[in-house]
Amino acid sequence: MLASPVSLLAVAVGGAAGSVARYLLILAVGQWLGTRFPFGTLIVNASGCLAMGVLSELAALAWSPSPETRALVLVGVLGGFTTFSSFTLDIGVLVGRNELGAAMGYLLASVALSILGFFAGLWAVRSLVPVSL
């Protein structure tokens, strides 16, 4: 299934807005609480997931957004703000379908593969790029 040009534009505009909001919030939290611990990212992830929970449940129960509005807000803004919110929505969908094993497998695989991917990227660069001191 191909996305419509309007939906793609909505995701792009929303993603830009969400990314800028994430950056500004992380900067503000860093100034407020310091940067030794990633409080900014923690707050972004927690607030983005809260917003995803609220908006996705409203969309299911009381709000009927158009596909373009859903693309703008849920995929674009919240996806740009934090992909962690998309991750939790995926888990929520699996739990809502009572696919608890799949939800747990997805959670564990996502965390493990993401961390492994990060360290594999570090290793790849360190093994290919000479260190200059």
Task: Describe the protein in words.
With 133 residues, this protein is an all-alpha fold. It has one domain. Helices cover 83% and strands 0% of the residues. It is built from 5 helices and no strands. The radius of gyration is 18 Å and the shape is globular. The relative contact order is 0.12.
- What is the succession of H and E elements? HHHHH
Poorly predicted ranges: none
Strand composition percent? under 5%
Q: Please give the largest β-sheet.
A: none
Assign a percent range to the helix content. over 70%
N-C termini distance: 51 Å
Helix-and-strand structural type? mainly alpha
Tell me the number of strands.
0
Shape: globular
Mean pLDDT, all residues: 91
User: From the alpha-carbon coordinates, what is the Rg to the nearest angstrom?
Assistant: 18 Å
What is the count of structural domains? Answer: 1
- The number of helical runs is 5
Summarize the structure.
With 133 residues, the protein is an all-alpha fold. 83% of the residues lie in helices and 0% in strands.
